[in-house]
Write a structure and sequence with these properties.
- By secondary structure, this protein is of the alpha/beta class.
- The protein folds into three domains: 36 residues; 208 residues, Rossmann fold; 178 residues, Ribosomal Protein S5, domain 2.
- The chain is built from eleven helices and 23 strands.
- A nine-stranded mixed β-sheet has the order 6-5-7-8-4-9-10-11-12, sandwiched between helices. Strands 13-14-18-15 form a four-stranded mixed β-sheet. A three-stranded antiparallel β-sheet has the order 2-1-3, with no helix packed on it.
- β10 and β11 form a beta hairpin.
- The termini are far apart.
- The protein binds thymidine-5'-diphosphate and magnesium ion.
- Magnesium ion (MG) binds next to α2.
Length: 461
């Protein structure tokens, strides 16, 4: 067959492929994300004869006893679901400069110290640059092989010869495959490179870590296009100007996805944060209004965070609403619930008027929380700021709020209250329907509330 190169258009946001250019991606709706790439369509793979292919019975499938390699970094192991699975592929995504290379180099150090052979392939930094970083982190033994290369065919050949147990590719956007015509970092290169790495991982059972930069604009293909190809997707997030970093699992074929690992960036690399609650509550103001502590579950782990709110008279035609660390629309909804608050017992309305107020809500510590269990704390933070009530610093609040102002039960109430007690809180305001699950906890005053009015009364006391 004559070779024929065909132009196709890839969306740099979602990876969708179309044959014609258009301003908006027909799949994800993003604007100006379609980029032309030349694809070699002539390589048609030879298929096995259909009559030779047979499905396997589930009971006949044997699993090799899944052995995990510990990274010896507890926070990292937790997010991975208990350690590295041989032959798996892990994508570590995040903004440039957040600390992905640092985290993986530290993992190399720990793995090598435990006797594992590791190969670190860098397409971004020179050997000297890696050495300088390694010197900040600490001492390394001779188990780590460094390799500065971007050609995947070379990498594949070297890996197959050296057979390391763990392979690290930093980063996928710099890798290129000669058979693909487009530039490194384009969707087809990133996809094809991941395919080659997948062959290496599954073929010889090497665990592969891929670093992927997340970019806002479509100049380099984001790691989103390869999320479905890899086994595990981890995102490293946090404010680059703050020192705390959160490693969050968003997909994991070998474990739970809700787990997070918390790290602090020091001048000697990343340090694990074993007790994030006390870190998140660090520097909490005394006798402040509009400050409420709540407990959010991140996977199996309770984390206490402080919700702050500031309500002030607006100087604008339309009042400003701002939410940092939580969902903006959720805040608007809670404001509406507070405005329509009802005293159910007296059967009368007791809402507060917020239509002429600017409202700012912030979760201290730079963490993002999307769990509805923090609703009650957000609502009470807004209420106490508006009413100028200084809340007792020993109170913790959690609960989901429904549209009629009812406080609904949340999962794992017991763990939340226990964590609060451990950190010295003496009163918990929780959904009334969660009371039975926490009645065995002693030494902390527990108040059950069934609607927002009762919660407001409990906090104002
Ligand atoms: P890096 O791992 O290079 O980020 P990424 O690979 O995600 O792009 O981390 C970069 C930042 O971390 C850089 O701004 C310097 C800082 N850093 C420290 O503060 N302490 C350290 O010990 C190291 C190695 C880096
Ligand atoms: Mg890097």
């Amino acid at each position: 067959m004559a070779k024929k190169n065909i132009s196709v258009f890839f969306c740099q946001n979602c990876g969708n492929e179309t044959s014609k250019w258009s301003g908006q991606c027909p799949a994800c709706g993003a604007w100006n994300t379609l980029v032309e790439e030349v694809v070699d369509k002539a390589t048609v793979k030879t298929r096995a004869k259909v009559s030779d292919v047979k499905p396997t019975k589930l009971i006949d499938v044997t699993t090799s006893n899944e052995m995990r390699i510990s990274t010896n970094i507890e926070e990292f192991d937790r997010v991975l679901g208990g350690g590295i699975v041989p032959g798996s592929m892990v994508l570590v995504g995040g903004d440039p400069g957040i600390g992905k290379s640092t985290l993986l180099l530290q993992t190399c150090q720990k793995l090598c110290n435990a006797g594992t052979n590791v190969m670190y392939v860098s397409g971004e930094e020179s050997l000297q640059q890696i050495k300088i970083r390694a010197d900040r982190i600490g001492t390394f033994n001779d188990k780590l092989d460094l390799f500065c290369e971007t050609n995947l065919d070379t990498i594949k050949a070297v890996v197959e010869r050296e057979k390391p147990t763990v392979l690290i590719i930093d980063s996928i956007q710099t890798m290129y495959n000669e058979t693909v015509g487009s530039a490194p970092g384009s969707v087809s290169q990133v996809r094809e490179s991941t395919g080659v790495l997948m062959e290496i991982a599954k073929g010889i059972g090497i665990a592969v870590f891929i670093v992927g930069h997340v970019t806002k604009e479509g100049t380099v293909a984001g790691p989103r296009v390869l999320e479905h190809m890899v086994d595990t997707v981890l995102y490293f997030e946090g404010d680059r100007h703050a020192s705390y970093r959160i490693l969050r699992g968003v997909k994991n074929r070998f474990g739970s996805t809700n787990e997070i690992g918390v790290f602090e960036m020091r001048d000697t690399g990343l340090e694990q944060v074993k007790n994030p609650s006390s870190v998140m509550l660090d520097g909490r103001p005394d006798n402040a209004t509009g400050s409420i502590v709540t407990c959010s579950m991140e996977g199996t782990r309770p984390i206490l965070v402080e919700i702050q709110s500031l309500v002030s008279k607006t100087a604008f035609e339309i009042p400003r609403r701002m939410a940092t660390g939580c969902d903006y629309n959720r805040v608007n909804l809670l404001v509406a619930v507070l405005e329509r608050m009802r005293d159910v017992k007296a059967n009368k309305s007791c809402g507060i008027f917020l239509g002429r107020s600017d409202i700012y809500v912030n979760i201290a510590g730079g963490i993002r929380i999307n769990e509805p269990a923090v609703d009650l704390a957000i609502a009470l933070a807004i209420y106490t700021s508006e009413k100028d009530i200084a809340v007792d610093p020993g109170v913790i609040v959690f609960g989901e709020i429904g549209l009629t102002g009812e406080v609904r039960s949340v999962s794992m109430a017991e763990q939340r209250v226990t964590e609060a007690k451990k950190l010295g809180f003496n009163k918990a305001i929780i959904p009334a329907s969660n009371l039975p699950s926490v009645k065995s906890i002693k030494g902390i005053d527990i108040v059950g509330v069934s609607n927002i009015k009762e919660a407001v009364d409990a906090i104002s006391r």
